[in-house]
Amino acid sequence: MSDTIGDSWARVDGMVKVTGQASYTADLSLPGMLYGKVLGSPHAHAKIKRVNLEKAKRVPGVHAVITGKDFPYLHGECIINIPFLAIDKVRYVGEPVVAVAAEDWTTAEKVLELVEVEYQELPAIFDPEEALKPGAPLIHKELEKYQILSAVKIIPGTNICQHFVLSLGNLEKGFQQSDYIFEDRFITPQVQHAAIEPHASIAQVDVMGRITVWGQNDSPHRARKEISQALGIPQARVRVITGYVGGSFGGKGGLKPEAVAIALAHKVRGRPVKVVFSREEVFKTITRSGCIVYLKTGVARDGTLLARQVNLIWDIGAYAEKGPTISLHGGSLAAGPYVIPNVQIESFTVFTNKPMAGAMRGYGLPQVAFAYESQMDIIAEGLGMNPLDLRMKNAVVEGSKVVTGQRLHAVGLKECLEKVGQELYQATGSTPEISNKALPYGRWVKGKGIACSYKSVKTPSVSAAYVKIDEDGSTSIVTSTVEVGQGSHTILIQMVADILGLEKDKITVSFADTDVTPYDTSTTASRSTFHMGNAVCLAAEDAKRQLLALAVPLLNVHQNALQLQDSKVLAPDGRSLSIAQVLKATFGAGAGATVLGKGVFTPQDILGLEDVESTQLEAFSALSAFHSYAVQGAEVAVDLDTGVVRVLRLIAAHDVGKAINPRNCRQQVEGALGMGLGYGLMEEYLWEKGRVLNPNFLSYLVPTALDCPLMEVFLVEEAHPQGPYGAKGVGEMALAPAAPAIANAVYNACGVRIRALPLKPEKILKELLKK
Amino acid sequence: MEKFDYFNPKTIDEALSLFNQFSKKAMYIAGGTDVMVMIKKREISPTVLISLQRIPGLDQIEYDGTLRIGAMVTHRTIEKSDLIREKFSALADAVQVLGSVQIRNVATMGGNICTAAPSADTATPLLVLGAQVKVKSLKGEKIIPLEEFFQGPGENVLKEEEIVTELMIPKPLPYTGSAYWKHQRRLALDLPIVGVSVLLSLDKNRLSCSEMLRVFFPISSIFHAIERDELVCKEVRIALGVAAPIPMRTVKAEKILRGQKISDELLDEVAHMASEEAQPRDSIRGEAWYRREMIRVFVKRMAMKCIERVVKPKDTPFPVQQD
User: Residue A679: its chain B contacts at CB < 8 A?
Assistant: First the structure.
């Protein structure tokens, strides 16, 4: 079935989801289930002086009303410093302070109105550059006392929860050699994942103290670890089950509603507690961090990049969550996909009194890509070069060394640049017109922009899977990879169908359940196709070997001569046995049967590490099992009277290694282009003293279908020697280049360079009016 | 969400008596796209909701020289009406960009007005079209000009059990065009940064610029033709949304144009005056200076749109804002 791989199968989970039959966590109900709600802090930074729960506890139908003191544990991925409910102090507006479990939602809401909390406000800090200054109020006083992941280097006595420097070559020498030096400062705002399904979780603690969590966690094994670490219990005492997920984009990892549900579940004697966040609560739960990027780049007259210094300040909000590893991962990519002999990247990850910033599609990449790709166009203009030529001249190629010291392999960047360059600048006749009816009497000017980017993957990480073949040849893939809408279940089935020679409707994929499905680090980082794909392929090969071995005595043929095809074992002489026949003959009729294949994958022999200095080897996620490459181009129109930007065209070329399912890859890229357009033009948290002013979809705008233009997606396949069928990753990478491509197109159209996202009409018009 | 009792009266009188019976605890509900949202957000907590859905006759559109729109007519019905598209274009513009199709299927004309949001999409078109509001109470019936209806953000002039039953719009003068522009940050499902409605009545509809409008000439050459034709503005009304606590008319700007020959410079002056009359504020949706600037831009553009609609009413492309 060689056409299985590379064929655009329809999503296996599509019908169930579009017909509304899929039950998401908020839809689930368990016998005796209670409903949990939280009361959030009204202050950005305050001491909790007194909490009075007396009135609240007397309401009929209430089973538990608790504060952080009733469940005084801390959890966290990078730094274990996040309370399940605030203890003594609140650090952002919306931080859960009191939680209630009641018979129904209305009672729970009413109870919270009766809770009295007295606060003493503390000086709060919202600007990460202010938070860096000596004497700034400390958001975590004794940071060094927490349990901290080894890749995280805090600076005690400051608000800095991660500091690192990566360097290559000699920066000073590089600047001395340069003919021109460009210096810029770029800013990206906090944005929201905006997954259509809000966070939800159900937790139950049985009489033996064993915790079960049902929900939508994108990394159930990691959540299990986080819970067991927090409570000091073995992982065996915790079970995490993930069902249908309505979008994650990185926002559904860690413990969010899970923390509240678990805390409440401990107080209600075995009854399950369901917590469903409102949209407003989701906005206060997790964001993508804002980042300030200082870029100083030295270039030769001919456009050769000679030196680049990057200083990064990440606004990570009130708790570390994944912030320190995001900054390390994104920071390591901050010089861009270019051959630069002298590079230094210094990064500070800083606490502020805002909601936590965590992983979001790109893991730090969109922030830095906006900066370096905007500056590439500034440099091109300064040198009088074409932006495409400047990129082609400096783009990384096979064997290029980047700042981490790693050499890159399977590099499809130039091919992507050529493809987008050709479609954007050379192909004629495809440019859509701004029609009279679209916007009457606008003073439109058009422009084109391009941007490229590369991305590493969380490394090291582990994926394990079972493939089990049952009685009639029906096969289950037992995996902890979570189908968050990215299409992973479909492509895993394609791989197994290819290896076992099975029809697609004979193969199913499990939901993740830490009691049952083997370990997988996470469904993040665009790692699943590569890692879980490899694990599932290993498991399928293992199952195939076992099955063929069973057929050897039945067909009396050497195992190597047997083939699996169309659910049959084929001998070279044309004889065949169905899988069912083989199993029946082996195990006996009526006994049932299973062949259990297993696969464990972790990237061994990571390519390109030969020159990496040992001091940088511990740089978590910076040294990468593979890199993905993407180039995106935008054509825009800007109305000179209003500053309004209309994106007319988005073109994308992505090096995915091998497209297991090309339509699925295109869908990933199209979705990311829409998200990137939102990042570029309209999305941002608006703040007033740490309070989110737009915590809803009425005021926080994501693009609608009407805002999204014609999207043209091209797939480049620079096979990775270690990827399953050569495949790499696509989902996260795809988000990064759109926003800078649009910003560059806006500059090309009207000469306005916006260095702070989003490109709101006000900002553009203000600059236009200055001219 | 608090519990409430829900009544479905079959006549207006029954609805009025019900309201009177429960008084302050009661609230009328039309399409529910505002009321239910406010209840769920706990901004209001009526214990009695009186639905106007089942009262016959409130969902009709009639035209007998005066356009009569029943209070329960949905925005989707307005959107699909050829009559409104041809003769009351500004209103048609508004309902194409109001909420989403799903919202327009249930949201009503009466409800949008009664909510009295400064950003209400239908408010400024109705103002320039000269709408009046028919109100019924236990005491009888009265008619209020829409300009006197809005009292503040979310506040209308209605008292006690009063119900809006109908919006009445007079027949436009000959050679009249109207247009509404919702300046928004994305192309659907948004609230306006500003809303601008203009209505122009002209002295003729045969102009040498008609072909230029079709092929979208530069604005300066269009004005050259308009000035040569000595086009006179017989009547003008301009209304702004999100420019003040209530949807407002810009009377001074209108006065500059009324009875005058239309020219590029004069329209600039009118647009400038309109932006001066506005009292916009800074909000998360837009800064005051930008709102003022956009009023200037779109008053002129909508005046142009009005002329275009008079000159070539059949060709006028709809929808205006969406491809």
Answer: none
**Mutation target vs B (from A762, A764, A769; most B CBs, 10 A cutoff):** A762
Q: Which residues in A lie closer than 8 A to residue B183 (C-beta atoms)?
A: 642
pTM score, whole prediction = 0.96
Estimate the crossing angle of helix B219-228 against helix B264-277, to 10 degrees: 110
CA distance A581 to chain B (A): 55
Task: Dump pLDDT digits (tens) for B15-24.
Answer: 999 999 998 8
* Residue A293, both tokens: 């990027």
Of B287, B293, B323, the CB nearest to A435: B323
Q: How far is B51 from chain A (nearest CA, A)?
A: 23
- Given a contact cutoff of 8 angstroms between Cβ atoms, the answer to whether A333 and A456 are in contact is yes
Distance CA A400, CA A385 (A): 23
Give the closest of B216, B305, B322 to A706, CB-based: B322
Query: CB distance from B157 to chain A under 8 Å?
Result: no
- Residue of B187, B296, B307 best to disrupt the A interface, most CBs of A under 10 A: B187
Q: What residue of B is the nearest CA neighbor of A108?
A: B1
Q: Alpha-carbon distance A490 to A664, whole Å?
A: 9
- pLDDT number for residue B321: 36
**Per-residue pLDDT tens digits for B114-123:** 999 999 999 9
Contacts of A707 by beta carbon, 8 Å cutoff, 6+ apart:
A647, A677, A681, B186, B187, B188
Q: Is the pLDDT assigned to residue A120 strictly greater than 60?
A: yes
Q: What is the mean pLDDT of residues A656-673?
A: 97
Residue A218 is encoded by which pair of tokens?
A: 């994108």
Encode pLDDT of A259-304 as tens digits: 999 999 999 989 999 999 999 999 999 999 999 999 999 999 999 9
In whole angstroms, give the CA distance from residue A450 to residue A650: 10
Please give, rounded to a whole number of angstroms, the shortest distance from the CA of A683 to a CA of chain B: 10
For the stretch B37-48, pLDDT in tens is 999 888 999 999
**Contact residues, chain B, for A435 at CB < 8 Å:** 323
Tokens at residue A593, please? 């049967």
Determine which of B210, B287, B290 to mutate to test the interface with A (most A C-beta atoms within 10 Å): B290
Could you give the percent of chain A with pLDDT greater than 70?
97
Cis peptide before B319 (omega within 30 of 0): yes
Chain mean pLDDT for chain A? 95
Residue B66 · residue B77 · CB < 8 Å: no
Structure tokens of A501?
């020679």
DSSP string for B92-130: HHHHHSSS-HHHHTT-BHHHHHHHT-TT-TTHHHHHHTT
Residue A437 has pLDDT above 50, yes or no: no
The Cα A180–Cα A231 span in angstroms is 56
Q: Which pLDDT band, with edges at 50, 70 and 90, does A619 fall under?
A: low
CA gap A472, A494 in Å, rounded: 19
- Does B249 contact chain A (CB < 8 Å)? no
**In Å, how far are A163, A245, A328, A402, A617 from A614, measured between CA atoms?**
18, 40, 17, 15, 5
A579-597 pLDDT, tens digit per residue, is 999 999 999 888 888 999 9
Residue B3 has pLDDT above 80, yes or no: yes
Check: CB of residue A112 under 8 Å from CB of residue A132.
no
Q: How far apart are CA A251 and CA B135, in angstroms?
A: 50
Nearest CA to CA, how far is A109 from chain B (Å)? 8
Please spell the DSSP secondary structure of A249-287, one letter per residue: TTTT-SSSHHHHHHHHHTTTTT--EEEE--HHHHHHH-E
Cα(A760)–Cα(B3) distance, integer angstroms? 42
Which of B190, B219, B317 comes nearest A437 by C-beta?
B317
Buried b (16+ CB within 10 A) or exposed e, A167-179: bbbebeebbebbe
